[in-house]
Amino acid sequence: MATGYAELLRARHAVRLLAGTLVGRLPNATAALAIVLFTRAEGGSYTLAGALSAVYGLSNAVGQPLLGRAVDLWGQPRVMLPAALLSGLGMAALALTGIEPLPVAYAAVAVAGLFTPPLEGGLRALWPSVLKHPDRVHAAYALDAVAQEVMFTLGPLAVTVLVALWSEAAALLVINALGVLGALSVVVSPPSRRWRSEPREAHWLGALRSGGLLALLGSFFFVGLALGTIAVAAVAYADGHGDELISSYLLSALGAGALVGGLAYGARTWAGEPETRLRALVAALAAGYLPLALAPGPVAMTFLAGVAGLFLAPALACAFVVVDRHAPPGTVTEAFSWLVTSFGVGAAAGTAVVGPVIEWGGAPAGFLVAGAGGLAALLVLLATGRVLAAPARFPTPVRTPSRTPSPDAAARMESDRNGGAGAGFKTGHQA
């Protein structure tokens, strides 16, 4: 396992792109916590803190696919660096002006969320040109999913350390400055500067004209819902046992399970169609969430949380391959950004829905909602089996002579993943 990942990371630019993307995404990973801590430090209520976080989240959900489409049209550096700067300036405005006047605070978080650069989708669009081989790209997707778990664990810890050392405003400024530096590291790299999307058909739906992609987005909305539910239910479970640290044990176990599962999944080559494998992984994910509703003692519950996390990173890694296969030509960054949006909106919905459920039936009822979310995700994949059975074949627009690239530039372009055998992941049945 270690040998395979070491070989992947030895590929030129791989470590730089992965590390730069993770650092660039720190502001997004920590925004909810940082906004709440800052608002409370400024004397604002939890209601105001929640409202500001919600505005950031909604703006981010709108901005990701729009910026992803812009990247597909104009390239990564022209879009991602200005977006990162504007997003950082939005958070800086909040940190420097505070929560009064309120319209300025809302505008600041809206700008920060709307212009969060789509680094996540951008990295996945770069992997094929950097790693050159489907098996390595498959492993990179798994490593990417694992790295997300590490980032969402260490990011909030970094915020709390910065608050303890300096202040809540300083935490906002430092984290967002790091985010800009991370984005800068990515967009000035040769793979990012060389990358060009395929020619794309002019269509207002963009990536959303793919039925397979819509099916996947519907499924992962419910996966996100399940995760958002678990985060709140874990706090309710800890309250019920009189120890707030228990919630951190459960969420850490969930993350550790995802890390182990993702590393194991990416260490081998998988035969068969990824769409079929995705259904099996989501079924295993749902099966892992359901026992949480039993809510046994803390030790057993921590073990169940670890088991529940095992299939999250593998399901995400497999979903990345499916997105890649079903995205219409020229929309790959936008398609990955839509997956991020669907997942995030689902998590927000889960957080909102589970509160009343917990008040009615306690933590076990909250965890039952998570299990129901997993089952709903599986049902969406089963109901749309025919749409996902094979990637749709979209016509690839022909470049005009004035825009025809040189042979060297053409070799650097994104491969046609919806084309014939030999393009992208269409060679054989691997990944």
Give a verbal description of the structure:
Helices cover 76% and strands 0% of the residues. The protein is mainly alpha-helical and 431 residues long. It folds into two domains: 1-6 and 14-196, Growth Hormone, Chain: A; 205-389 and 413-418, Growth Hormone, Chain: A (Up-down Bundle), CATH 1.20.1250. Helix 4 (46-74) runs parallel beside helix 6, helix 8 packs across helix 15 (312-326) and helix 11 (211-240) crosses helix 16.
Multimeric status of the protein? single chain
Low-confidence parts, pLDDT < 50 over ≥5 residues? 399-431
CA gyration radius, whole angstroms = 21 Å
Number of distinct beta strands: 0
What is the tally of helical segments?
Answer: 18
Which architecture of the largest domain does the CATH hierarchy give at level 2? Up-down Bundle
For the report, how would you describe the main beta sheet? none
Relative strand content: under 5%
Name the CATH superfamily assignment of the largest domain: MFS general substrate transporter like domains
Named CATH topology of the largest domain: Growth Hormone, Chain: A
> SSE order, as H and E?
HHHHHHHHHHHHHHHHHH
Shape: globular
Number of domains: 2
Terminus-to-terminus distance: 16 Å
> Can you tell me the CATH class of the largest domain?
Mainly Alpha
Average pLDDT, rounded to a whole number, is 84
